[in-house]
User: Which sequence fits this backbone?
């Protein structure tokens, strides 16, 4: 995902889309920013899994509970179909959906991910768990490239986890338009969306007491040290996350604790005390707002499943 893509006038050696290229552009911008996709190396993915288990981070638990309660209804609404999952892992939610669709209704499962090795590993584990399942992994960066999936029968693009919230609204529209094209004329798009709620709950979810989210946020600095030879003192940055109600989004920042320069290769980036590097935005929707984003790209909301506290929604759109 590239929620914070910047201008592209950089030399080929640090081209946009590479970690170094995006660091050079992002830290050279005012205000400084970096794509949240750089959280996710192995350590970052482990930290993210730990976030999903935190008492304050209701998101994953709530979406899974919706699936557990309503998966039979969801599977009935989908009917016989091929399930395409952009950015696929092998989440509890996906397994539940595939198992409920079962051999009679699940024509194939097409996980799409840039990381070929991880993709193959999770395909293997799914095949072991559901020997009847046809798994056809597809290596691609879904945020830029999601070809239409050939074959008989209906295609459902399944995008759980509220990752749609990590895209700015215009980018979210472009992403949903790509999903619509991939699903084809008769296709469906099933999306998990985190909903607007009491800002205190949102604040707590991104400021957990154990500091796991802070470590996740700082993981991008650790990666810059390890992978790009940067000289960043991790203690010289504060994790800072807050809900911005007018924009309807959580913003995650790394705020410089002092005036300092950081060196990345032969690039120097000055930070003044209190200056921030924005590392993530996480938009929260209401159902009508999410429906409007879909509508703008030709997707009609046909069904919705919410938890009792209306914290999270699983939305089904028809192309
Ligand atoms: C992956 N994404 C939906 C998470 C979110 O809530 O925006 C990432 C995350 N950032 C901090 N905590 C979790």
Assistant:
């Amino acid at each position: 995902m590239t929620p914070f893509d910047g201008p592209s006038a950089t030399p080929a050696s640090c081209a946009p889309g590479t970690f170094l290229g995006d660091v050079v552009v992002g830290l050279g911008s005012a205000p400084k920013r970096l794509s949240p996709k750089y959280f996710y190396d192995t350590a970052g993915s482990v930290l993210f899994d730990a976030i999903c288990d935190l008492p304050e981070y209701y998101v994953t638990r709530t979406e899974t509970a919706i699936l557990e309660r309503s998966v039979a209804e969801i599977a009935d609404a989908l009917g016989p179909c091929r399930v395409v999952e952009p950015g696929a892992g092998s989440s509890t939610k996906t397994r539940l959906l595939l198992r409920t669709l079962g051999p009679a209704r699940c024509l194939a499962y097409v996980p799409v991910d840039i990381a070929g090795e991880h993709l193959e590993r999770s395909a293997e584990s799914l095949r072991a768990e559901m020997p009847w399942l046809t798994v056809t992994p597809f290596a691609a960066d879904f945020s830029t490239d999601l070809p239409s999936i050939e074959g008989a029968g209906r295609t459902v693009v399944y995008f759980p986890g509220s990752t749609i919230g990590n895209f700015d609204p215009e980018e979210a529209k472009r992403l949903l338009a790509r999903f619509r094209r991939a699903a084809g004329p008769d296709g469906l798009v099933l999306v998990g969306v985190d909903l607007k709620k009491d800002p205190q709950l949102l604040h707590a979810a991104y400021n957990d007491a154990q500091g796991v989210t802070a470590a996740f946020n700082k993981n991008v600095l650790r990666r810059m040290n390890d992978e790009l030879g940067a000289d960043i003192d991790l203690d010289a940055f504060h994790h800072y996350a807050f809900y911005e109600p007018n924009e309807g989004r959580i913003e995650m920042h790394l705020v410089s604790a002092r005036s300092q320069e950081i060196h990345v290769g032969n690039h120097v980036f000055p930070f003044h005390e209190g200056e921030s590097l924005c590392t993530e935005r996480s938009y929260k929707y209401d159902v009508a707002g999410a429906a409007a984003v879909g509508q703008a790209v030709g997707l009609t909301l046909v069904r919705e499943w919410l938890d009792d506290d209306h914290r999270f929604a699983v939305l089904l759109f028809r192309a």
Residues 51, 59, 161-163, 165-166, 206, 213, 280, 282 surround N,N-dimethyl-L-histidine (CB under 6 Å). Confidence is low (pLDDT under 50) at residues 1-12. The CA atoms of residues 106 and 113 lie 20 Å apart. The first strand starts at residue 32 and ends at 33.
